[in-house]
Amino acid sequence: MRQGFRTQPKKKLMAEINVVPYIDVTLILLIIFMITAPIVQQAVTVDLPQTPRIKTEKATKVKPIEPFVISVTAEGFYKTSQAPDVVLGQKDLGNLVAEVVARSQLKPQQPFYIQGDRQAPYGKVVNLFVLLKANGVAKVSLMTEPEEKN
Questions:
Q1: If 0-12 CB within 10 Å is exposed, 13-18 middle and 19+ buried, where does residue 92 land?
Q2: pLDDT averaged over the chain?
Q3: Is 60 helix (H, G, I), strand (E, B) or coil?
Q4: I want to staple 67 with a disulfide (CB 3.0 to 4.6 A). Which of 36, 40, 43, 111 is the partner?
Q5: What is the mean pLDDT of residues 95-105?
Q6: 116, 120, 121, 123: CA torsion to nearest 10
Q7: 102 forms bridges with which residues in the sheet?
């Protein structure tokens, strides 16, 4: 006889998976993704030009607003549609931005386009775009040309 030992009935083995830790990990990951998703998203806001409206009697009386186009040449200089013969350098960029901001405040509906030469430094085009957007010019767009089919 065994006197110091108690005999306990054998416990049955559980064959179930404990899913509580998996649910905890899933909820933690969900919270992390919800917090980091808005931070990771970076986008350039572009106000695209709208398609032309069908001419009606009222539309023929309204004069369309001519866009203001800024060109970036292959050498990295700037030209405007109002003064195409005047070549502006990097030192004149502040005055150009100030002029565009003033024009956008006088005519809020006027569109502004930036067209960069294919050989133009990409940084110059993007820098001009960001400067205009940062200074409150709402209707700034980048101009492109459709590819020619061979």
A1: middle
A2: 79
A3: helix
A4: 111
A5: 88
A6: -10
A7: none
Q: Residues in the chain, how many?
A: 150
**Cα–Cα distance, 39 to 148 (Å, whole number):** 39
95/105 Cα distance (integer angstroms): 15
**Distance set, CA 5 to CA 2, 12, 88, 110, 137 (Å):** 6, 21, 99, 94, 87
Tell me, rounded to whole angstroms, the distance of Cα 103 from its chain centroid. Answer: 23
Other beta carbons within 10 angstroms of residue 100's beta carbon come to 22
Q: Is the confidence at residue 49, as pLDDT, over 60?
A: no
What is the b/e burial string over 121-130, where b = at least 16 CB atoms within 10 angstroms of the residue's CB? eeebbeebbe
What one-letter code names the amino acid at 94? Answer: G
Structure tokens at 24: 């905890």
CA distance 67 to 107: 11
4 three-state secondary structure: coil
Most confidently predicted of 18-32, 71-85, 119-133, 135-149: 18-32
Q: Does residue 110 surpass a pLDDT of 60?
A: yes
Residues near 139 by beta carbon (within 8 Å), at least 6 away in sequence: 47, 104, 109, 110, 111, 112
Amino acid identity of 76? G
